Amino acid sequence: MTKFPKPARYTQEEWEARVSLAASYRLVAKLGLDDMIYNHISLRIPGEEDAFLLNPYGWLFNEITASSLVKINTKGEIIEDTPNTVNQAAFVIHAAVHGANENSHCVLHTHSDASTAVSGQEAGLLPLSQFAMRFYNRQGIHDYEGVALDAEEQARIIADLGDNPVMLMRNHGIITVGRTVGEAFMLLYYFERAAKIQLAMQAACAGGAKLVIPPHEVCEKAARQFWELKGDILIPGEREWPALLRDLDRSDDGYRA
């Protein structure tokens, strides 16, 4: 018998989606990129055009399980029998992105420190490391409007994100968008690494160091190598995600419940 059998109320497709999404919460927490009970990651449910999963409001990321996730539609309605609720700002942000882009299967939003610090810089993430090259000219920026509680902000979120895989929410945090949970997670990981390196380089400038930024042509070449999957490069998460799940299962497999 499986340690964590699929509850009868879920289809196999929905249960697999729930398990994958729950894993992403545990991994974000494991890397210290969560914000207690706040922030959110959502995932469309295969075969249900208007339904996606969100974390129950009030739960820590390292408490999230597959069965605790809440099914919601793009109108903000909870569409399953559950005692849990969802964060209103989560609905505003995630419903906007899911409703606008059919490829945005997973939408991840955090207040991770380095990405938030970079969000307050005029140019956002600079091409200062190979981690950053993936996002060269491929980051949206959305100006701060206060806590995202107003439905009117959704149109501006959609416009500012555009076709970009990531968007900095100025003075607030970051959104990453993935075709899979693994892709959205790895984009956060790579962006946060790039942001940390940028802050370290900028701090060194106080001691007299000077930044070296490669020319536009080189930055664009590197970005295209990532997004056009040159050489043996794969979609973010395609290699990393199975390894991350193996590691998580060794230490914290309770997300599968």
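Second entry:
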Amino acid sequence: MQESGMEQSDFEFRVDALLEQQKQAWPLAKTNFSGLQQVQSRTISFEGFKIQLQFNPERIRSSAAKTDAHSIQQRACFLCANSRPPEQRGLPFGEDYTVLINPFPIFEKHLTIPLNRHLPQEIATYFPDLLELSRQLPEYTVFYNGPKCGASAPDHFHFQAGKHQLMPINSEIEEVANRWGEVLFQDEKTRLVAVGGNYLRKLLYFRSASKEALQVQMNRIRGFLDERGQDGEPMMNLLANYRANEWELILFPRDQQRPRQFFAEGAGQILLSPASVEMGGLVILPRKEDFEQLTADDLRDIYEQVSINDADFEELKAKIKQRP
């Protein structure tokens, strides 16, 4: 059944067919997608929103992935066509991408969409592709993890996509923006709202029916974030949806890849490496002890560490409010 305002595209029908074929023909995918039925979850409620925890031990490969340059050089790129398992099939998206199912899923429908060339994770050139993918996949949220913001393959550009509405932010964002948001920019095409610390994660929320207007705003914000002097691409996660002929885009500016708890030893360790899904309120935990023991205070502390700091966020908002 489609959500109100959604119509499944022909491309999305073909993606669903690929999912079903791979879940039947690829034993690894069949086992792990079936295993989602056994995944445990629990909710931590805050005032006006919630964080959903998922105990998913198969995601240890992503959560604990070594993404330093030396480790990447020592392994074959699992997103390159010549390194994929022989059972893995793909669906072309234009000339530049191949849609694959993710064999270690978080969602009942979970895709990885790599570029057909081995180039590093860097959104600037490919931002229009994020918008077009979300337009072609209206039942999905399409997301981008920066090279130091949860991407387990920072050496090979890719997007991911998951079944819409499985991240809490998908159903909360309008209410959250109305309750805690500050309008930074609005015209006849585009609305841009900043949401601050009451939501634990700081974010920018765009709504627009214009791809060109979103590109203009993204270029401006990328320029402002560049001024922070982070090494390489400014740290960020992006979530994109397309509903009722309009894009909804959420950008999370980041300060850290992983919180200090990730590197702690003994009882103080929490194996949590926030990526787009975690920033969207669905926290994936591969260890049962973390799933059972994580608290609201832990989440406040972890999100504060990895999100952009207060001073830089206020400066970013002030720059955005200046008319271009």
